[in-house]
Amino acid sequence: MDQVHPKRQNGTVEIKTTGPDSEQLTEEQWQAIINNDSDYNNQFFYAVKSTGIFCKPSCKSRVPRKENVLIFFTAQHAISAHFRPCKRCRPTGQRLPDQEWVSAITEYIDKHYDKKLTLSILAEACHGSPYHLHRTFKKITGITPVAYIQQTRMDRARLYLANARDPVTDIALFVGIPNISYFITLFKKETGLTPTEYRQLERSKTTRRCLFDGSRE
């Protein structure tokens, strides 16, 4: 890649990956997590760095990658480290407000838009059913999760096209759309222009700005 790519500004809260309140994961705790062992529910909570969510050991959600797991002995310690309680297992004993859950979902999309993302994958990662996630997300945001994924990818694609020199085929991959024909169709539907036309338009704007600024000196 020719240039440093622009970063998406999404206003997310940085999750603490280490700290005085988190503990080293032991093999016993890991086995409790992968076996959904409810006997350990009162002993610890585990948080997942990639999703920003924390759970009880008995949670039925997909087992996370071991290197992404942090251990906390109280729910409050996990919350203080900016993790949200799981919508499925409710580690605090209370239902996570829909607004907070949707915030966690949008943060996950903002961080993983370049990966394969379906409603099922999103629901599994964010600890809810596909139907409930779809319905709740649309209720809070006014758009569906799939529409938000596409919007995020197109926003990122516009930044790449305007600021980077990479081929359109590479940019499609950067934003999680390996099918170049689909990427072009989706981009034109969103902007009214093909990716190449959009890039040319942005470059002409930049040239005009430079000429205008130069004439004022």
From TrEMBL:
Signal peptide bounds: none
Pfam families in UniProt: Ada_Zn_binding, HTH_18
Cofactor(s), names only, from the UniProt record: Zn(2+)
Disordered as annotated region, ranges: 1-24
PROSITE patterns for this protein: HTH_ARAC_FAMILY_2
Record GO terms (molecular function): DNA-binding transcription factor activity; methyltransferase activity; sequence-specific DNA binding; zinc ion binding
Alphabetized UniProt keyword annotations: Activator, DNA-binding, Methyltransferase, Transcription, Transcription regulation, Transferase
GO biological process annotation, one example: DNA repair
Residue ranges constituting the HTH araC/xylS-type domain according to the UniProt record: 103-201
Name of the protein in question: AraC family transcriptional regulator
Species annotation: Peribacillus saganii
